């Protein structure tokens, strides 16, 4: 298949490009810069210039492909309304192109905010509905397109999609540990996260492109629950710094923007996903990744 990938140069997107290419697919990646285009073409993919605000570019990328993987997001923490607006417009544009075609549209979402008090399961609908909601309600928008002849699927990612070179949440925790000389957890450290290695996540995306039935909710979750204290202890070992509890009132000063997420339990199951697509995570777990040195090097 010819697969159009937005976010092709990102942390998950770059691994997805590699996975699709290694499985014999042709990949067209959305890129904003010459340097990103050069990296893509060196891999054997095609570079398609544009961004989330260039709707005509998105329209053409989707129209000329057999499937779309939508991973890009502005992630503007200072202006989430703008991120949500751009996400909604981009998803609407590409879904309109794919309507009636039966082609695959795989879109990313997070696990946070779906349910509270228990792990999220694939049958749990996202409460984000409509353009004013989180991520512009793009998960429900995509799933609703199944009745319009789009083979749409949502991949919900664990809060830690980890691996060497990661620039996400665990990297921010490692940076806080270096800055303060201690690896911290909040309160008693009982808040928990799910986790998945980026190579396992990329393989799930490829399986979704190839096999997922229309209207599927899929969970990129290899490890259901790791306590934030265990994560902090692993970072302490890897960085050779003490491990300590950080009072909730001091968490924002210590961790910065990641404090809110590190204080929040975000866990999920992936039983339905594994049974549906035969997905079996095989890469190292998060604690193993940390203690083996994946986060000891500062990410540029």
TrEMBL record:
PANTHER family: NAD(P)-BINDING DOMAIN-CONTAINING PROTEIN-RELATED, PROTEIN YEEZ. It comes from Kribbella albertanoniae. This is SDR family oxidoreductase. GO terms for cellular component: cytoplasm. CDD domains: SDR_a7 (cd05262). Signal peptide: none annotated. GO terms for molecular function: aldehyde dehydrogenase (NAD+) activity. Gene3D superfamilies: NAD(P)-binding Rossmann-like Domain. Residues 3-82 form the NAD-dependent epimerase/dehydratase domain. It comes from the Bacteria.
